[in-house]
Amino acid sequence: MLIFANHQYLLLLVLVPLLPLLYGLARALRKQRIGKFGDPELVNALMPSWSGAKGWVRLVLFDLAFLCFVIGLARPQMGAKLQEKETKGAEIMICLDVSNSMLAKDYSPNRLERAKLAISRITDKLQGDRIGLIIFAGTSFVQLPITNDYVSAKMFLGSISTESIPVQGTAIGDAVLTAARGFSAQSEKSRAIIVITDGENHEDDPVDAAKQAADLGIKVYTIGVGSLRGEPIPMDGDLLKDKDGNIVVTHLDEGTLRRMAEVGGGAYVHAGNEEFGLNPIINDINRMEEEYFKSMVFEEYDELYMYFFAVALALLVIEMLIGSRRWKRSLF
Known about the structure:
By secondary structure, this protein is of the alpha/beta class. The protein contains 10 helices and 13 strands.
């Protein structure tokens, strides 16, 4: 697997196609200026040693040298050995509500997108902790098994929508039990479930599910998303209506979420638009006893930057040796 340790330098590659364009423009402007002084053929005859073709050859060599130099700066590396790596931290399963009620716009741009943004920001701060993702509506589904690969976690997070689960509803209890089964065999103490939902449960008993998780030594935290006054649900350019034609209004059920956190040994947080509530929960989880986890990763890499620097140097030397004058002698 090829990776770049300093991938930010790859942005300089946009200059590679620009250099020939700028050189061609400069040549055209030069030819235009020469045309103002007289006949271009006569001017060329007065400069018999100047070679236009060599200018392009030198430019191509310099451009290739610049390309190799930028790739070298980015430090390309090749995975050389698969090693067992030990990390320490906690295991966190996040249960994210993807029912239609999460489309309500009392958060910007809506409840679901705001929750996804908060989770994404949290993954940037995790160090050593392992994270998994459960999505739920009328049923629950393991979107991402427990892992310390935060890049994959953000990729899976980006693909989530209210269409990720076709069965509508809000089965919070089923999501908690699915999360409880998703922890690794290595974890025994530092385990936590974070449920992000508006709390409007229609399918099962989430409080009992939280108690079952607590009996297994798993802490259950809840984050309430939504307003107490209620909010309509946008759907296909209109507002969601019930079978009688009345507009459906979704309310935050804080009571259920508070009871879940209480029996689960965790805490309840009402998400705000600015501070969503994940930060204080993660800080509380970090105070739990850390556990050691083992995983197989590419730990050692072969550095390849020196080869690209060598090629860049060789091309620059050739470019300087070519010069800009015509060859004085013909091969024949």
